[in-house]
């Protein structure tokens, strides 16, 4: 069974994430989506809400498992016998930090990192930007799955 992990904060998941997860799901038998818990970062959505949104968004892929993890990504991988991390690279500005993490993860446990180039349609996309634009009333409907967009609008309205 060939396994890979797509890690992230996913607060919330957007179409750029989904593109990368979908492409990974065509290359691997099982793709684990790991919602990494960062206690020092207050999210707009709870980890449980993020997991539910990702499950709904990836249900049709058929081989995606979604869970949260508190700790090092390499420990998530070790516990599940996952040899590869798959990440999207949006632009050259992503590269330095992603390279550092890839090299650290390789040094810590030998886990490989594979980068997939984000499709140009989503090369500018990030969860933070989506939240900021939506908070000011900008239209982000085309950047998110429908249920995520609805949840975002609802959450921002309640704030
Ligand atoms: O969506 P994000 O916030 O850009 O994802 C970053 C994430 C969660 C993938 C990264 O911070 C991570 O791997 N965190 C887990 C803790 C860890 O392993 N840190 C060392 C990385 S070398």
UniProtKB/TrEMBL annotation:
Listed pathway(s): Cofactor biosynthesis; coenzyme A biosynthesis; CoA from (R)-pantothenate: step 4/5
Residues holding ATP: 9-10, 17, 88-90, 98, 122-128
Occurrences of domain Cytidyltransferase-like (ranges): 5-132
Catalytic activity annotation: (R)-4'-phosphopantetheine + ATP + H(+) = 3'-dephospho-CoA + diphosphate
Function: Reversibly transfers an adenylyl group from ATP to 4'-phosphopantetheine, yielding dephospho-CoA (dPCoA) and pyrophosphate.
Family to which the UniProt record says this protein belongs: Belongs to the bacterial CoaD family.
Name of this chain's protein: Phosphopantetheine adenylyltransferase
Organism phylogeny: Bacteria, Bacillati, Actinomycetota, Actinomycetes, Kitasatosporales
């Amino acid at each position: 069974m060939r396994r890979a992990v797509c890690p992230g904060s996913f607060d919330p998941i957007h179409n750029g994430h989904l593109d990368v997860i979908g492409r990974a799901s065509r290359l691997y038998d099982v793709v684990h989506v790991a919602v990494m818990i960062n206690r020092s970062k207050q999210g707009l959505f709870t980890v449980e809400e993020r997991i539910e949104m990702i499950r709904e968004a990836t249900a049709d892929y058929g081989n995606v498992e979604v869970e949260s993890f508190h700790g090092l990504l390499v420990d998530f991988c070790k516990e599940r016998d996952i040899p590869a991390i798959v990440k999207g690279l949006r632009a050259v500005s992503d590269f330095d930090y992603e390279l550092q993490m890839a090299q650290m993860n390789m040094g810590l446990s030998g886990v490989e990192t594979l980068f997939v180039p984000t499709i140009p349609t989503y090369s500018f996309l990030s969860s933070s930007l989506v939240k900021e634009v939506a908070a000011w009333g900008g239209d982000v409907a085309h950047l998110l799955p429908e249920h995520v967009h609805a949840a975002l609008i609802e959450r921002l309205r309640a704030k």
